[in-house]
UniProtKB/TrEMBL annotation:
Subcellular location as annotated: Membrane
Source organism: Dillenia turbinata
Protein name per its UniProtKB record: Major facilitator, sugar transporter-like
Swiss-Prot/TrEMBL keywords: Membrane, Sugar transport, Symport, Transmembrane, Transmembrane helix, Transport
Taxonomic superkingdom: Eukaryota
Transmembrane intervals: 39-57, 64-85, 91-108, 120-142, 148-171, 233-257, 269-291, 298-322, 334-358, 370-391, 397-418
Topology in membrane: Multi-pass membrane protein
Amino acid sequence: MDDFLIKFFPSVHEKKQHSKENNYCKYDDQYLQLFTSSLYLYALVSSFGASKVCYIWGRKPTILFASVFFLAGSAMSAAAINIIMLVVGRILLGMGVGFGNEAVPLFLSEIAPVQHGGAVNILFQLFVTIGIFIANLVNYGVSTVHPWGWRLSLGLAGAPAAVRFIGSLIIMETPTSLIKRNYFEKGRKTLEKIRGVRDVDAEFDQIVTASELAHKVKHPWNELMKPSSMPPLIIGVVTQVFQQLTGINAVMFYAPVLFQTVGFKSDASLLSSVITGIVNVACTLVSIYAVDKVGRRVLLLQACVQMFLSQTAIGAILLALLKTTGSLDKAPAIMVVLLVCLFVMFFAWSWGPIGWLIPSETFPLETRTAGFAVAVSMLCTFLIAQVFLSMMCHLKAFIFFFFAAWIFIMGLFVLFLLPETKGIPIDEMIERVWKKHPVWKRFID
């Protein structure tokens, strides 16, 4: 928004006014990129503290802290009168993201029945996509409110945080967390309430056994470095890295910039990003239905083929038709928007939700919070957000071929190294998955 750029990034606004000089470079500014990416850097740092809170006090307090940080960050961002206040707001928002991303996937994986584990876990990604869609709607709605529309845009982030704050007071702690902290009776009653039946002996005993094994591990970070922990650690880390190297966050963060680059006006580009938000939500719903029916590997493999083709096609159109100055004709510009929507569609029912699901299914209880606190996703998100506009300035259309090449590598990784985890309880992963896999069995004693 021009009002926002004039107040905090005047040099970018000046460059934007002379955009005909270079389509690909008009938003290339390290400080502007840092505004977007810094949130994820702070999320990365705070996730280590969140891991400790999650381990000692449980999932519910961690979600509560996440909500408080996010409320404070939203208020600070909306009230910002200088760059320092804006940065402090981003720090608080980043802490909210770090605590939330640590606790919420764990909470969902620990309350879900095994047969519906994938679908319940994907609710996390579903509501992320709903949040993105609502954010795009808000941006589109307030873009004509001058000169303080940007304050509404940043401040309204507190609305979902308020809902989560209230929810964090209502929800119960997970049975796994309670039992792990020696609240056995309370853990059993919670399990009965969640399942809606009194006969939970088998599942309760399973959690107790896993908890006893976890208690023997005094230093989960050291446990992560053992050979037997390498399969889930490598898969968890690589899955998170690949999730970002699809290019999805570059597309979602900078969709308005991308659409303006190919010739859409400001309002039209914001509306186009609303459309991609709708696609994102709808196709995440598809994954909830499909993930426990067709499995994780099938969804990931077919999406690699589809995303590779769509990214390559976008790159080919821009390489052939978008010059350094000027813009695309209407027909190819619309084609780029359609291809972006297809790319988002393919990602939303595969790597988006499953990228969060697989680590929660593969890490054993004793290293689960430590594994999540690696926070690889936050690091990669920070890096992509920080460098994308600069990469687009230097690589131009070849940026899309860059992501397409990574998607090809991702497909090979899934084909040869990623086992299917559908319907397999966490305590049976070693016997049923790792010991039978041609590569990972070498790590298991």
